[in-house]
Description:
With 267 residues, the chain is of the alpha/beta class. The protein has helices spanning 61-68, 96-102, 117-127, 133-146, 150-153, 166-178, 196-209, 222-228, 246-251, 256-263, and strands spanning 21-32, 35-41, 44-46, 50-55, 77-84, 87-88, 103-106, 184-188, 214-218, 231-236, 239-245. It has one domain (21-263): Rossmann fold.
Amino acid sequence: MLKNYSFEKTAVQTFDEHTTLAMKTENMQVFYGSNHAMHDASLAFPKNQITALIGASGSGKSTYLRSLNRMNDTIATVTGKIWYHGVDINQPNVNIYEIRRHIGMVFQRPNPFAKSIRENIIYALRATGVKNKKVLDERVEQSLQGAALWDEVKDSLDKSALALSGGQQQRLCIARSLAMSPDVLLLDEPCSALDPISTVKVEETLLELQKKYTIIIVTHNMQQAARISSQCAFFHLGHVMEYSPTTTMFSTPQIQVTQDYVSGSFG
Ligand SMILES: Nc1ncnc2c1ncn2[C@@H]1O[C@H](COP(=O)(O)OP(=O)(O)OP(=O)(O)O)[C@@H](O)[C@H]1O
């Protein structure tokens, strides 16, 4: 039988004045029609750190993540504030394409275009008007280096991206996001379709990338959250129940529902 947990929350993680934040939300609510899928989510994300969003299926993690760069605009109503560089980007006059260049997204299933590896990287860049071959070539190398894929593909840049393994395709999708020089990377269960070895590769890549980027990752894999994140937010039925340093979340969770979730006795 499902347990009834109260929605009383713990104090939400706050950061001292020395911590630079990449972005934060205040009282974010998301509605799919009459379905109130996200209640009052206020979370702050420290720059150059990895934050994991965890919780059971349907708890609202993807809904929250996709709202951060306005990917939910056409399917949901999102209220509340989304602060990014001092601007509330949840405003109608904000250029969402510009926002998505700064706040990139990598999805659960690797989704490279049916084009060459090189084209995958430069496609969006060219669409923004970058034409210079030297600049494009540099960006291809930098992005693939950043996603730890360069050494594996540098001699086959004109081969189809679809010929890569699933893990390589996912790193190509990360490289594709990096090509736009983002600031924040949102990843929605990026390893769920990958084998353990590819998962380790992606995790190592993310740990390296946090030196330059702020990373917010949805994961069902608690070991993964424990391995790579600095703080974790636990979602339950559309509520952020607890937001703590990852070590606290897994060693001394503050409330029963989190304790049950991380110990596997949730339900
Ligand atoms: N496009 C959509 N249209 C309508 N309702 C949606 C849509 N996407 C999600 N929802 C609803 O919003 C709630 C939260 O779903 P969401 O996908 O955000 O959860 P999740 O925690 O990411 O789940 P999972 O781990 O299975 O991906 C659910 O009730 C879901 O049915």
